[in-house]
Each structure stands twice: as structure tokens, then as C-alpha cells.
Amino acid sequence: MSIDKALSGTGGWLDDRFRGAKGFRTAFRKIFPDHWTFLLGEIALYSFVILLLTGTFLALFFKPSMTDVVYHGTYVKLDGVHMSEAYASTLRISFDVRGGLLMRQIHHWAADLFVAAILAHMLRIFFTGAYRKPREVNWLIGIVMFTLALLEGLFGYSLPDDLLSGAGLRITQGVLQSIPVVGTYLSFFLFGGQYPGHSIIPRMYILHVLLIPGLFLALIGAHLFIMWHQKHTQMPGKGRTNTNVVGAPMYPYFMAKTGAFFFFVFAAVALAGTFAQINPIWIYGPYNPLAISAGSQPDFYMGFLEGSLRMMPAWQWVIFGHTFAFNVFIPALLPLGVILTGAAFWPFLEQWITGDKREHHVNDRPRNAPTRTALGMASVAFYGVLWAEGANDVIAQHFDISLYTVTEIARVTVFAVPILAYIITKRICLGLQRKDLHLLEHGVETGIIRQLPSGEFIEETRPVSDEELAKLARPEPLPLPAGRGEGTEDVPPPGMRGGVGRAKARMNKVLAESVPMNGHGDGHGPDGHGADGEPTHAAIGSPEHEAADTAGGSDRDG
């Protein structure tokens, strides 16, 4: 019996009972656009799958208990040392369970890759405007998943109860206690009494392996369902509009590609787990509240919170017998709160400022939204300064400078660098827009130099292709809704009057700042051709040629 006949018979048997053939045919014909940045979301998804697989293996051997035991295992350097059962079981997984250390390392690398992929995926969505209507809900789901990923990572690397993770747990307890009025109660509730107690490891274990993964499964399912229903965004290109999808069908192209990519991700994480050591807990030793190791760093995704804590001055108030530890509360909650809250409200704020309530299924090029791109890079710079400050002791040691000098520099750069990043990024975007306009109006250099009978040297250009033209063209910005047919040049329309209206108009002017498109060129000048119907040329060294170079920035075809 042939394979086709067997599959046909199985499919017929299932369809007779579940009537799913029509739905499967529709699903297999669904078109998916193609771009390398779309793989970032797939990396996050596949990292989560790897985390589930390796986490299940580790859960078979890990004991989430803080019961004190005396270690007599394979790692003789810790023989006879008192430690928690959680730490002892982690040592057992690392040295006695076949493949245990490899699974631990794959799990840890997959966790880092998971958070990094979510972060890169969200940056791609922000810079290309893929969060706009109708995808605001999916954007919010992504922000919630990123927040949960930070918590999941914190709880996960705290489970072994080693000295490094215990230091992070101590910081977590300090952050909880810094919350005014209710901080002490929250700390007692989480730790089950005085720190560290005997309940925190079992409680974090339940959160880490049961509650948060369950929330992840629900949110990922909702995220994929909404994406499937609304269709995937696509990058600008020839024939791509808000009413179609240009790409390849799910079967066989997308299924084969994404299946192979899963194994590529798994192979990369397995190679990292095999050859790159991460979290060697036997070096740190068991947790002791009285001890701490020098140069200790958390995983990269918690580094910015570590940096903000180290950077903050010692501000502390005592009011009516209550201590307000602003030196802990503000750096622990304010930077993350500002970034995540700002990201959550941004799609709705942008829609209100621009009045753009259309559906968007074609992404923007980041250069075509200079203000948005500049704000994103300013946030990245802000994160980067805090992240670097999280290793201020390591920086001070390697560069042989004072630790306090590093901290003082960070306190200045945390404000100066984001401002500079905003200004520089916006100038770069506007310059790239001028380059695109130069290509549209003058075409692409061919490298061919001709000499006219008059002795003048000219450079040949070719018009941009249809594919290039589709990428270079920018949609016209919408006017503010309240300005359509209402008001005059001197008297603003009703919706733009008052303080709110004026603020909205100013923000719209900043947000919509771009280089104006002078006509719709195709590489032969504003009208497509010169006066005689021939392609236009600029003489080498002529004022026209120099002016074109100045306006266009780098005039090489990008």
C-alpha cells in the first residue's frame, strides 16, 4: 500500500468523524509573508518549547526544599558542607544524573535566548509600526509576556539556592520591603516569615513550573490565534498593500522552513550548552545570608535593574515612624515601569496624536518614522547605560578607575546618552530619507562616465526598479481629523483649540516630521524625464551635481 493511499485513507477516516478536511485545506493554503526579522518571534517560540522540554527533565530530579542537609556527593570540594536540599539536588543533577549538566546548561541558555528574542521581536515591532491598528491587543500581550519572562527568569535562577542566586533573592526582598506601607507585609507573605525562611524555594518552584508557564501557554496561544486571524504584517515591496498578503503558503513551504528552523535553534542552544559554561553553582557554593561574592552579576535581562540600584543616591525619608527607602523603591520600579507603561500606551497615544485610525498591514521602514525610531533608540540607550552600570565594579577593576567615578559618570550619561541617541537617530533617519528622495529624483549611479562633444563629463544613471520604487515610496501623512474643512489659517478648528488642542498639534508636528516628497519620481527627475524626453544627467563637478550629492547624503544605492 502506497504512502499516498495510506494518508488518504487516514484523512478520510478522520474527516468522516470530525469534518476537518475543509478547515485543514484552508489552513494549509494560508499565505505567510517572508522577511528575516519575522524569525525573531519564531526564535522566542522555539526557545519556550526547549524550556518546556528541558524543564520537564530537570523537574524529575530537582527537590524544591530548604531542609538543611550535609553534602556527601561526587563533588568532593563541598563534601561535609551544610546546604539546602535544593542546592544538593542541583549538584546531583550536575554531577550524578546522566546528561543532567547538559540539560541544565541548555535550559539556562534557552532562557536567556527566550528573553533576548522577545526583546528583539518587540523592538522590531516598534520600529516598523507593526503594533498599529488592528494589532494593539497583540502588542499588549507581548508586553505582558516580556514582564512574565523577567519574573520567570528571576524565579528560575533563584531555585538552586546558591550564593549568587541568593544575593539576587535578597535584593528582591529589599525591593518588596521598600514599597511604602505594605512592603513589609508583602515580604512576609512571599517568604513565609522572616528572610530567608523555609518557604521561598517551594513557593518559587510552584510559580516557576506551574503558574507562569500556564500563563505563557495561554498568552502564546492567544497571540498566535490573533496573528492568524488578523494575518501577518509584511514589509513594503512591489505589489504589497493593506488588502493582500504576498508570500508563500503554509504547506509545504512555511511548514518545512519553520520546522527546520526549530532544529536550527535547538542545535544552536545545544552547542552553547555543550561548549559554553553558564551558572556553575558549585563554584559559588551554597547560599549564606552573611556572605556575598565580588563581581557577581545577574543574567543580562536583570542587569538594568541592578544598574539602576547601584546608580541611585541614598535617598531615604522617615515619616511618622515609617521609612521610605526611595534609594531602592525608585530604581527598582520606576525605570521598568516607565518603559513598559510607555510602551503599552504608545499605540493609543500615537493614534490620538496623528488621528490615524486606519488598519495597517504593511510595515513602515524605520527611517520613515524618524521620531518613533529616535524614541526607540533613546529607550535602548537608557537601558544600555543602566545595564552597563550593573557591572560598575567590574568596569572599575578592568579600567583601573574609582568605583565612585564610574557611578558618577553613569548618573550623568543615563540622561545625556538617551538625549544624544534621540537627536543622532532622528538626524540619521532624515538623512536616509533625503538619500531615498535623491534616488527617486536622479536614479541610481551606474559607474559609467561619458564625455559629451562639448567636453563635459556626465555620469549615467538608471531609474530605480519597480521593487525599489515600492520600498522607497512613503505614504502621505494624514491631516488631523479636526482640521478637515474647518477653521482658517488664522483661526484653528474647534477640535484644535485650547491647551489640549495646541499640545496635540505640536506633538503631531514633531511625530510627523519627515523630508517632504517632491513629486513621485522614478529615477528620471520629478516628471520622469528631461526636457527632451531623455534621462537627465548631472555633470561631474557641476553645481547641479554637487547640490544633488549634498541633498542626498550617501548617493550609493542601498
Kindly summarize this structure in a few lines:
Helices cover 59% and strands 5% of the residues. By secondary structure, the protein is mostly helical.
What order do the helices and strands come in, and which of them pair?
Layout: H1 3-18, H2 21-28, E1 31-32, H3 39-59, E2 68-70, E3 82-84, H4 85-95, H5 100-128, H6 136-158, H7 163-178, H8 183-191, H9 200-230, E4 248-249, H10 250-275, H11 281-284, H12 303-311, E5 317-319, E6 322-324, H13 326-354, H14 370-389, H15 392-399, H16 403-442, E7 444-451, E8 457-462, H17 466-472, H18 498-511, H19 543-552
Antiparallel strand pairs: 1-4, 2-3, 5-6, 7-8
Structural classification: mainly alpha
From the spread of the alpha carbons, the general shape counts as globular
Q: Which percent range describes the beta-strand content?
A: 5-15%
Please report the total strand number as a whole number.
Answer: 8
> How are strands sequenced across the largest beta sheet?
1-4
Fraction of residues in H or I helices? 55-70%
Give the N-to-C terminal Cα separation: 55 Å
Poorly predicted spans: 519-558
Helix segment count? 19
